[in-house]
């Protein structure tokens, strides 16, 4: 399903892999924030007479964290992303609103570990314009909150002072630099 909102441009825009990422942040140890990104990202924003659609995917193996390698391996395991059985995180929009004031609201279906759940993201967008190299480029930055346990990511441990080591709420951060496809 596509949006019904009026968007002041048309075309197909693909995420520039050098300038796009899919990130996450989760409260850890009750006081810190654990962050990571998946850098192998594909996304396509299509705007035409039938509306605006966004689809994307991130390869789980491309996960990057600033911690020892064993943390990365733990994230790839079945206790978290299950990379061997589920190599991608995917998203397909059901409604896209790119507002004239530069705000964005995107509703859709997020699939992690083969489990699909609805998600709503909000953020900002920059309308396409010519860049320094003659390309037409726009930008989309959206955040969404999910409960990781709804995607079968249940690992946790008790803290000595009480509570759990890892929060269930996770903030997803999508940062996409979008290049317009050349017309065929």
CATH third-tier fold name: Lipocalin
Described by the principal axes of the CA atoms, the overall outline is: elongated
Summarize the biggest pleated sheet: 8 strands, antiparallel, barrel
What is the arithmetic mean of pLDDT?
92
CATH class assignment: Mainly Beta
Q: Gap between N and C termini, in Å?
A: 25 Å
Helix-and-strand structural type: mainly beta
Order of helices and strands: EEEEEEHEEEEE
The stretches of 5 or more residues where confidence is low (pLDDT under 50) are: none
How would you describe this structure in keywords?
Lipocalin; single chain; 8-stranded antiparallel beta barrel; 1 helix; elongated; mainly beta; 184 residues
């Amino acid at each position: 399903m596509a949006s019904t909102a009026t968007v002041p441009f048309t075309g197909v825009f693909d995420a520039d892999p050098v300038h796009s990422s899919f990130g996450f942040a989760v409260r850890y140890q009750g006081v810190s924030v654990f962050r990571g990104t998946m850098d192998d990202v594909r996304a396509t924003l299509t705007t035409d007479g039938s509306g605006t659609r966004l689809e994307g995917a991130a390869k789980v193996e491309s996960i990057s964290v600033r911690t020892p390698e064993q943390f990365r391996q733990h994230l790839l395991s079945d206790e978290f992303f299950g990379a061997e059985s589920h190599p991608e995180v995917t998203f397909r929009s059901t409604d896209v609103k790119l507002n004239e004031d530069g705000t964005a609201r995107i509703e859709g279906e997020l699939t992690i570990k083969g489990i699909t759940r609805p998600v709503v993201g909000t953020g900002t967008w920059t309308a396409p314009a010519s860049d320094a190299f003659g390309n037409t480029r726009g930008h989309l930055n959206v955040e969404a909150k999910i409960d990781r346990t709804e995607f079968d990511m249940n690992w946790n441990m008790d803290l000595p002072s009480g509570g759990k080591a890892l929060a269930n709420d996770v903030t997803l951060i999508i940062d996409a630099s979008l290049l317009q496809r050349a017309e065929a």
